[in-house]
From TrEMBL, chain A:
The lineage of its organism: Eukaryota, Viridiplantae, Streptophyta, Embryophyta, Tracheophyta. It is found in: Membrane. Its main location: membrane. The keyword Cell cycle does not apply. The chain crosses the membrane at residues 14-33, 119-143. The keyword Plastid does not apply. GO terms for biological process: protein folding in endoplasmic reticulum. This is ER membrane protein complex subunit 3.
Automatic annotation (TrEMBL), chain B:
Signal peptide: none annotated. It holds the Pfam family TPR_EMC2. SUPFAM superfamilies: TPR-like. This is ER membrane protein complex subunit 2. It is a peripheral membrane protein.
Length: 247, 303
């Protein structure tokens, strides 16, 4: 049955290749449009400082055993005390990220711009593909696949008898949408390539509360048991030297 | 930090460029990437590219980056005219840029016009208080002026915001050591050890500072950090070996007769350090061996 299906070469010339080319062109275009619309926004000193405090607290947490107990305690008090510790967040002050977002019109504007450059071209291309190319097989991959891939590769064709290694045009669109990252990084340079999957993840991570991570670091620091490893180092140094002297 | 393979690559490119084999642009890019200070070479080869319109246009938009790089290198080499020309070209291209404004301030600074440069930096920082490079320039300028206390002040202000910047901590530590403010320096070195616990250099410097501070507790701690340096370097660090000996002798003097428990446990360490030192001297500088023995004898460590 699989052998009977022969794809017209016109499909290759007028669907498969144009679709990929259009996807690439749209990707490049979108990159330049978003570059145009990108606004440089000065970071808030408070947020920068919070990031740095968290970094320092993490360093302290991970390397606590390398400094003398006295120094460690001094640092912990500096970071965690209830009056003016850097990691301590007063209860009323922990403002909601959501509220902050709405109070700052720039932020909302930025998000909208991002959305515009992402969603509009995507909808348009999807509509275009749907309108012109829906419902037929555009390509065949050269190896067999299990039935589970049917929903991924044959989106838009509701035939259960077609072999799974055939790819429908709409699925080809999706494969291109998510798979062109490597090509973009070649065209636009390593760090400029940003594919949609990543963008979507970023959207999901938006609105994280920085004060919460401050609190989490504080809790982490509070429960650390300080165990100075330097006394062990003396023995280790002895062992090292013994070995060195014996050589 | 520059890795070994990168350094090799750099040296290879350098000799290639010196012998007229081309690749000047790649060489300059590598220098920029690794943040290495080879200003004379940058100036020489950068100018050959910039003065040749064909070569200049072949690098496209990176031309401006090169102008900036050459300008900074020229400042470093005291060729102010070249720097001025580069900055002028950049200014024409980017009339509003803050980055160029910083370059202009650096030109003032290089010429020794401290007050004007300071004014320029301050106004830049007013516009963007989170500009790390400008903050650091201001510290460097205060240091160059000889106004160390001001440098400390700026650096502290900088570290208040960017407290995870370990290079700034290192700078501050070294300044404090030069000012003989050892307690503050010790704090900075602790901070450095926290951020990079496996770098023996910081352990060693911390131990040095603690030894200089003196006092039984500090000496014991210093000895521990010398020990960790020995361990981290595999016993190859002569300074750490000497430090162990000095600490042991100082501790012995302070706790005359009444040896406590901890000392008994670790009394092998300094005798081992002495042996290691002697062996090292025998191997590498046999003529100085008597000097070592007499020094160690004066510390009452060598038997």
């Amino acid at each position: 049955m699989a052998e009977d299906l022969v794809l017209d070469t016109a499909i290759r010339d007028w669907v498969l290749i144009p679709l990929s080319v259009v996807m690439v062109l749209i990707g490049v275009l979108r990159y330049f449009v978003s570059k145009l619309m990108r606004s440089y926004q000065t970071p808030d000193p408070k947020i920068v400082k919070e990031g740095q405090v968290i970094l320092r607290a993490r360093n302290l947490k991970s390397a606590a055993n390398f400094i003398p107990p006295k120094s460690f305690r001094a640092r912990r008090i500096y970071l965690c005390n209830e009056e003016n510790g850097l990691l301590h967040v007063p209860k009323g002050q922990a403002q909601n990220a959501q509220a902050q977002m709405f109070s700052d019109p720039n932020m909302a504007m930025d998000m909208m711009k991002k959305n515009l450059s992402m969603i509009i071209p995507q909808t348009l291309t999807f509509a275009w593909v749907n309108f012109f190319f829906s419902g037929f097989v555009a390509a065949k991959i050269p190896f067999p696949l299990t039935q589970r891939f049917r929903s991924m590769l044959q989106n838009g064709i509701d035939l259960s008898t077609v072999d799974v290694s055939y790819v429908s045009s709409r699925s080809w669109y999706f494969l291109n949408l998510f798979g062109l990252r490597g090509l973009f990084s070649l065209i636009l340079g390593e760090e400029n390539a940003m594919d949609d999957t990543q963008r979507m993840m970023q959207m999901g991570g938006f609105g994280m509360d920085p004060t919460r991570s401050l609190g989490a670091e504080k809790d982490n620091l509070d429960i650390i048991q300080h165990d100075w490893v330097l006394s062990k180092f003396e023995q280790r140094a002895e062992a090292t030297l013994r070995k060195l002297v014996k050589q | 930090m520059v890795s070994k393979s990168e350094e090799e690559q750099l040296n290879r490119l350098e000799s290639q460029v010196e012998n007229g084999g081309g690749g000047a642009w790649e060489y300059l890019c590598l220098i920029r990437k690794l943040k290495i200070r080879r200003s004379d070479n940058v100036l020489k080869y950068g100018l050959t590219i910039l003065n040749d319109p064909k070569k200049r246009s072949s690098i496209g938009n990176d031309e401006w980056t090169l102008y900036e790089q050459v300008a900074i290198a020229a400042l470093d080499c005291h060729s102010y005219d070249v720097a001025k020309d580069c900055i002028k070209v950049l200014r024409k291209k980017f009339p509003e840029s803050k980055r160029i404004a910083r370059l202009e301030a650096m030109l003032l600074e290089a010429k020794g016009l401290w007050e004007e440069a300071d004014k320029a930096y301050s106004s830049l920082l007013e516009d963007n208080p989170l500009d790390q490079a400008t903050h650091k320039r201001r510290v460097a300028m205060a240091k160059a002026e000889g106004d160390i206390l001001k440098a400390v002040e700026w650096l502290n202000k900088y570290l208040e915001i960017f407290m995870a910047d370990h290079e700034a901590w290192r700078e501050l530590a070294e300044i404090y050591v030069s000012l003989q403010m050892y307690k503050q320096a010790a704090f900075c070195y602790e901070e450095l050890i926290l951020s990079q616990p496996t770098v023996p250099l910081y352990h060693l410097s911390y131990a040095d500072v603690l030894y200089t501070l003196g006092g039984l507790e500090n000496l014991q701690t210093a000895k521990k950090y010398y020990a960790s340096t020995i361990d981290l370097t595999g016993g190859k660090n002569t300074r750490a070996l000497y430090g162990t000996c000095l600490c042991a002798s100082a501790i012995a003097q302070l706790t005359k007769g009444g040896r406590n428990r901890e000392d008994k446990e670790n009394q092998d360490l300094h005798s081992l350090a002495v042996t290691a030192l002697e062996k090292d001297y025998k191997k590498r500088a046999p003529s100085k061996l008597p000097l070592l023995t007499s020094t160690l004898r004066s510390l009452k460590l060598s038997s």
